[in-house]
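subagent[fold] <- orchestrator: predict structure for attached chain, return tokens only, no commentary.
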Amino acid sequence: MKVSGLIAAGGIGKRFGAERPKQFLYLRGKPVIAWSIEAFQQVAYCEELVIVVPDGWQKTVEGIAKEFCRNIDYKIVVGGASRAGSVLNGLKAVRSDVKWVAVHDAARPGIYPHQIEEAILLSREVGASIVAMKAVDTIKIVDKEGLVIKTIPRSDVYLAQTPQVARVADLLRAFSEDENFLNATDESSILERIGIPVGVVEGGINNLKITRPEDLKILEVVL
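subagent[fold] -> orchestrator:
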């Protein structure tokens, strides 16, 4: 089973407020994106890395890739105007003989190689898969005024993480059949719309997405 690891690093992280995109900040001595690069290299099924980056940052990523891609081929692709657009650009660059892709946020540096492998194996069994963390807090649905509408059982709720694994052909078809795909925040939601079953692999706090400066501090401890 040949898999391409597609590392989505195309955003510029306006919400984070740093001088450079958060995926290029340093975490315990190395760039945030390097953690994901090293994790995917330890996955036996991974044949290549497609690294999607913001325009203007290709040279920076080339330097990082040369240092940390020690035993795997890689390609650097310029991202699009949205996350989904960036993923689509990456999909088009996947090697033609590789039929599966594992899309992973570069802002999730704590992913474990065994979680990636479990997601790959589950996707082969059911059609597609995601890593997701089971909700531990009570879940409230809130209206635009900030008032609680209802409470839903947390036992039914998972917080989607990455990687999200699917056949390249299925993802391309999902994008082509969904007029609003550019607004999608993850791949599994688009796959669901075309009837592809999506399985869940248990994630955890290790796979926290860096969104705010305090997230970087949390991962300093977790990692």
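orchestrator: received. Logging for downstream: The CA atoms of residues 27 and 63 lie 17 Å apart. The longest helix spans residues 113-126.
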